[in-house]
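Submission sheet (multi-component)
Chains listed below:
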Amino acid sequence: MRYAPSDLPVFTLTTGPVDAYPAVLRGLAATVLYDYDPAFQATYQRVTEKLARVVKSETMPVLLQGEPVLGLEAAAVSLIGRDDVVLNLVSGVYSKGFAPWAARSGAEIVELAVPYNEVIDPAAVARALAARPDVTVVALCHHDTPSGTINPVAEIGAVVKAHGALFLVDAVSSFGGMKVDAESAAIDLLVTGPNKCLGCPPGLTILGVSNRAWAKMKANPQAPRASILSILDWEDAWRADKPFPFTPSVAEINGLEAAIDLYLAEGPEKVWARHALTAKACRAGLKAMGLPIWPADESFASPTATAVRTPKGIDEAVLRAEVRARYGVVLSSGRGETLGKLTRIGHMGPTAQPLYAVVALTALSGALGALGHKVDVGAGVAAALAVIDAG
Amino acid sequence: MRYAPSDLPVFTLTTGPVDAYPAVLRGLAATVLYDYDPAFQATYQRVTEKLARVVKSETMPVLLQGEPVLGLEAAAVSLIGRDDVVLNLVSGVYSKGFAPWAARSGAEIVELAVPYNEVIDPAAVARALAARPDVTVVALCHHDTPSGTINPVAEIGAVVKAHGALFLVDAVSSFGGMKVDAESAAIDLLVTGPNKCLGCPPGLTILGVSNRAWAKMKANPQAPRASILSILDWEDAWRADKPFPFTPSVAEINGLEAAIDLYLAEGPEKVWARHALTAKACRAGLKAMGLPIWPADESFASPTATAVRTPKGIDEAVLRAEVRARYGVVLSSGRGETLGKLTRIGHMGPTAQPLYAVVALTALSGALGALGHKVDVGAGVAAALAVIDAG
Amino acid sequence: MRYAPSDLPVFTLTTGPVDAYPAVLRGLAATVLYDYDPAFQATYQRVTEKLARVVKSETMPVLLQGEPVLGLEAAAVSLIGRDDVVLNLVSGVYSKGFAPWAARSGAEIVELAVPYNEVIDPAAVARALAARPDVTVVALCHHDTPSGTINPVAEIGAVVKAHGALFLVDAVSSFGGMKVDAESAAIDLLVTGPNKCLGCPPGLTILGVSNRAWAKMKANPQAPRASILSILDWEDAWRADKPFPFTPSVAEINGLEAAIDLYLAEGPEKVWARHALTAKACRAGLKAMGLPIWPADESFASPTATAVRTPKGIDEAVLRAEVRARYGVVLSSGRGETLGKLTRIGHMGPTAQPLYAVVALTALSGALGALGHKVDVGAGVAAALAVIDAG
Amino acid sequence: MRYAPSDLPVFTLTTGPVDAYPAVLRGLAATVLYDYDPAFQATYQRVTEKLARVVKSETMPVLLQGEPVLGLEAAAVSLIGRDDVVLNLVSGVYSKGFAPWAARSGAEIVELAVPYNEVIDPAAVARALAARPDVTVVALCHHDTPSGTINPVAEIGAVVKAHGALFLVDAVSSFGGMKVDAESAAIDLLVTGPNKCLGCPPGLTILGVSNRAWAKMKANPQAPRASILSILDWEDAWRADKPFPFTPSVAEINGLEAAIDLYLAEGPEKVWARHALTAKACRAGLKAMGLPIWPADESFASPTATAVRTPKGIDEAVLRAEVRARYGVVLSSGRGETLGKLTRIGHMGPTAQPLYAVVALTALSGALGALGHKVDVGAGVAAALAVIDAG
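Outcome: structure written.
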């Protein structure tokens, strides 16, 4: 039995786009209202207020009308001017990829890099800032997804705050699946989206902005205005009595409301716990099958995605294709430097439930076996189950 | 009986966001696939190929992941470089508003303007081009929605073609509701979206690009790359075997497929006919009620939106609020210069059915009466019905 | 412009199946749970409890797993045994049609009939009961839909109660659109469903049962058990800790929950008011167009459906076909004796909004005109609007 | 980590109601049309014609408006009159439970029974018919779901045909998941529904009727007419130009069309293969974990549900509750005589995909371990995977 490429997959265990919650799908199907209809304006404000409870930024969250790649570019070009010095903390492909946007204004970019299976040491950040007291902005990717590693955002945030720089954080693929918010990590510009751990389709950016970040953007003559890249234009758009700069993505907003309602009803801590347990079970199973994870240390392996190293002699693309063809399971590849070196199993939103780790382990083991790399699926599942049962 | 602002409206007769087709809403609720899943990649190619049948551009249509305001900005900054001279044809708020984007590169902008209740005369375009043979790009807004006027795009296109300039057209709120395509109007860069006459929610841009336009953008060093504003990055993304520059809006693509399927199944000519008839009935009713339309001549009144002048002494915002509170009907205001001077009745997608004109006429008449401006609703509806029955 | 029979209609203004609320459609699309899953059992109890607030029966409402024709047959054969004498109050096709079910057990049926455009006089019921003191069950159809007439259920209920008989009421097409409940009308067995004024699709029956009715059914050896027709089997099924006699219609239950949530959120009185106003506007418009309603007196014309007499010389089926072909509007015919004599305009659920009366009036007028019976649509709409504005 | 009873389950692996296909859920959410709208009448005919391709009865399939328990009762009381002699083939709780319906008319019931973990031997049927040449109807439950056993329907059908009796078959939980149709098994009255292997919610019955069965029902004075239990009333209802006896369940019909479209698009053989492989993998895993299946011989174990014996000392209800609380997995219990003795894992519709067997095995193993009955989950999953990979 083989699944054809045109067959719908059975399990989408990816790092995004992720399988959406059924309630979110129904939310997307809600009646489309005119954006200036008072019922929609009230919806928009209500959704923002619900988000404020979890983003915990000093000011009301901002929604941008495109998936978080828009948010990241907009954050870079809005916050950073030609007179800035940016310390870019590089622990993977996504943090490295932020640099060109940060540099677009003409700012100087200072890089603090670690190997892509390591994470940033807060002490090293402190040293880098001591060496360059003129750094005005520090940029971090919390979960460098192509590596499946989690940087110590709160500790780094404390260092950045002590230094006085602005802290810009990409929390796209961690937010909603683990504890990360503007308050606890002293983040000035938090960029995330509903399309990962909140279980929505891609299409929106969520921003958490501090008062200092607003002031900096407003003072930045290079910050986009009257542009899709503008954050400034949207500052007051959350208020039901204020205009939108342009038409918001009404259906995505409706889907986001369903997602945030689910998140608040279940309780963030409970949601994080099932993400963490799913990932932990997954790692235990991989270990038992002799498949090392990509992160150099399990202590900073992501709770929302598990990156497993591709065994020697296996073509990673062939492996994923076999996983899909044989079992209907979709996994994610690496990106850039990690492409071909690892496979990623997403634990985000609706699939962040421990038994999905068993699904992934079984499928991975079967496909590896089919490609000549035999692993002990029984040991893997047993180890995963032991973790789940202890969870 | 009054509808509260928080009550869902009964009829959304707006110029966008518009009421979506029920089949589109169900399309939005389809299972969210991973963007690199072969089933989704095949979907993306299939949707593009269906669009190609109606966009009729020389090359495959391009989808951008944001509502058409993104497409318009992207088109301007991708196509237009600092050495260009742009003839911007201004017949309303939206065409006027295009200038700052066109000028961002440093290009010179030449304006040919008419009053906002008139349309551009192709002969005037010819004269303007004769006066400025160095014009390299001509920009037109086909349906300047805030005025409800339709410019003679095909005739202007012929003039532009003869001149040799590139023709950039905003067909956002006309495409899908009347005949307009890249081939018949010689358009080099057609910008539209599914969120008006195709009956989708806002969230995507559709571009039709000529070979010359691609060449121009590729040769333009200022054209965005690695940006949300890049068109270039998406050139090959429609092919199932090519990567996406970043994550597409999966759910919106699914909704768009439902819309294009409906459109092709009904048949474009049939769809256009019901848009035209609805608008014509609406205009006849307004006339019979003594309410002049905004366009100076009915011959260029839009088939997808009817702009009616606000009677003396009536506050337009109060009028729309009354229409909603009294009847649950949502209409659109003017924008910019036309704000407060007219009300717009959308005939787009699912509400482009003649009886909706009667709904709008009745609601408008009732609200006007309540505000002290009595009109003869009976005459209005009778006139509209006569048009429908002759349609 | 003509709508083909295969085209989806634009407006469904029928007496059932009716256009469903969008929120109900999304409810139907909710994840299907196993009926014995505790989450579904809790749902079933919760839905029943919400219904109890509006059915107001002495005991918890019972849901049967089929549209109300099942409920009516089940009610008849469960409540009525061979020793009963049933007074069947006949004011139309549906009340007349109840007799065969009532007689199935062998019970004697006594009929009190009025012309099908009249309603039952409570005093006549009192006389009939005085003449036949052995009557044990009185059956009434509250809204005899094929006539569009509303019987005085509360007054008749008082008479029946004084007599001591059991009162069985078909409130299928009135419940949810006007005031009618078990308590206020002293109903022992109220039969209704969500597929009319609650705006659900057909598929469920809702029963309100008094203690006396339960006792009577339990004592009736002929009452069905272990059958789709059994009411007794479902007595305790609403309780989350009790088994279902057989599998309930899970999706319909989910849809019903959405409907009852809408109903309670809007407030029954407000819902009834918009049904009443829509019907009143419709009647005023018909009158102004010279089209008499079927009920002999407007005082008992239904707020949930307006029956208009077919003008002389018009084939009623042709008329409805013309209404659909010309305007995309679907209306209902008469049934049985009223078939061919009247057309019914439904005002149920989402289309019980006053402007839909204008839609119906316009479509009816246009089709009549096309068939040679000219009416003054302007006068009709003006009259309807005057009612709406005074409402 | 525990799932609360009110939490939505993660995996519904039951024997019905089953998890529905997402496309079916969207089908249920389609616009509700008036049953006499020509567009709906065409839909109803089209759905019936699609069903005809897979039911393969001599005449067009009949839809009844209630889940198959209605169909079974209706079949019994329509086909069987007081002069009939019925051979009821009893291999489980459901076949045994058919007898009271079969006997309602006063017919004589002859029983051929086997233990509930065995299946009917066609030779025994032949002997029973030889002993009672007056048998006029033979009744079989193809898949006696509470036992998870599949009777040899085609072989028995041949015996019944040779005898000349009518063959009434309950194929509710096998149809759509394995080969069974009226033609290949010589079935005169096939009763099934969309709510098992076709992946719909419960709410409809599908009947396949032979010419002889129609003749028999028409000649039966006891066959219900003007009743929810009538089959006769619905004979011509599939035709777009014929009336419905009463309102059909519009939304369920829409859902069924989505299901039959999926079934035909995938191809019945391919659908059956994945049901069979899932069940086979499940059985292999159970065996490897030392958990015997309920059927006495694997050769007649169902491909659509696997019944596993409850280990000594384990309370089956506690076991299922633990499976749900610990892993969010919902399984089915036994029924009647098998209640408490076995647990059933459904492989129906969307969950008839091999990896769901792994999910079930893991959850069962973990819950058993938690209740003190340790099994080797690794061996179970490895055995299941070996079967899948060989499949």
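Remark: The two ends of chain A are 35 Å apart (CA to CA).
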